[in-house]
Amino acid sequence: MSQAYVYEEGGKAFAEEGQVMLDGPDGVAVSMTPDAAEDTARELLRAALEARNQISPGDRDP
To answer: What phi, psi does 32 have (nearest 5°)?
Structure first.
């Protein structure tokens, strides 16, 4: 999957009125239930580990 732009900065999450708000780069904003936020967090961690394993050792950050 090719992306026009890959962001190097992560989003910021906070809780407000029983919801989890995620402010991402380039104006991305998402509001989720706590359950949806936990599921998303697990999926992001899983995908991040998978993506790291796809990068050759010489291309990884120290």
So the answer is: -135, 155
Residue 3 within any structural domain of the chain:
no
15-38 exposure pattern, b = at least 16 Cβ within 10 A, e = fewer: eeeeebbbeeeeeeeeebeeeebe
- Residue 5 is assigned to a structural domain of this protein: no
Position with higher pLDDT, 56 vs 36: 36
Rounded to two decimals, what is the model's pTM? 0.77
Q: Please, which residues have CB within 8 angstroms of residue 12's CB and are 6 or more apart in sequence? A: 22, 23
Whether residue 48 lies inside any domain: the answer is yes
Count of structural domains, the chain: 1
